[in-house]
């Protein structure tokens, strides 16, 4: 080969190999930033809503984010237990109802606990039915929205 000549595509492969070595951490950071960004938008919407709607909105939000794992279970073709995911969604549904009926703390507890539920589903723990990017994204989102709920509605 002549000096300075590279086989077509060889530098692309080398660059891809270098990027892929660091990409899990980079993807996790991007997912966390995306989750925090979406939580900021959610927080802004919650702050702008009439106070009488906010508790119901957060309660519905908690129910929705819990139900996503039921969908992951169905699409995983048996990788995730549908019964376990449905039971988990049921627990978060009860927390959402308690938050709606009794006290904001139940909503904050539910959001924080759902962040832990997310981490328990990380692919490194053997859960291949959940996209790897979703775990840090949703955990960051859950915890940030919980912070908004505590800061604006409970203090």
Verbal overview:
The protein is mostly helical and 155 residues long. The protein has a domain at 63-155. It is built from five helices and no strands. The protein has helices at residues 10-48, 51-75, 82-101, 104-120, 134-153. Helix 4 (104-120) packs antiparallel against helix 5 (134-153). It is globular and about 40 Å long.
Q: How would you concisely characterize the structure shown here?
A:
This protein has helices spanning 10-48, 51-75, 82-101, 104-120, 134-153.
List its salient traits.
155 residues; mainly alpha; 5 helices; globular
Return the structural class. Answer: mainly alpha
Q: What level of helicity do the residues show?
A: over 70%
- Count, helices: 5
Main sheet makeup: none
In the predicted model, the low-confidence regions spanning at least 5 consecutive residues are: none
SSE string, helices as H and strands as E: HHHHH
Arithmetic mean of pLDDT: 86
Basic shape: globular
Distance between the termini: 70 Å
What's the β-strand tally?
A: 0
Query: What's the gyration radius in Å?
Result: 20 Å
Strand content: under 5%
């Amino acid at each position: 080969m002549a000096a300075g000549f590279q086989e077509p595509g060889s530098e692309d492969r080398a660059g891809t190999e270098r990027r892929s070595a660091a990409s899990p951490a980079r993807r996790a950071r991007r997912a966390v930033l995306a989750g925090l960004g979406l939580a900021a938008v959610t927080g802004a919407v919650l702050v702008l809503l009439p106070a009488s709607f906010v508790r119901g909105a957060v309660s519905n939000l908690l129910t929705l984010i819990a139900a996503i794992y039921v969908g992951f279970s169905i699409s995983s073709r048996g990788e995730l237990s549908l019964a376990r995911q449905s039971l988990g969604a049921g627990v978060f549904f009860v927390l959402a109802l308690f938050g709606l009926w009794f006290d904001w703390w139940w909503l904050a507890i539910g959001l924080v606990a759902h962040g832990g539920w997310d981490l328990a589903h990380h692919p490194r723990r053997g859960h291949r039915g959940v996209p790897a990017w979703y775990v840090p994204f949703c955990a960051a989102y859950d915890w940030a929205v919980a912070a908004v709920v505590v800061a604006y509605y409970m203090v």
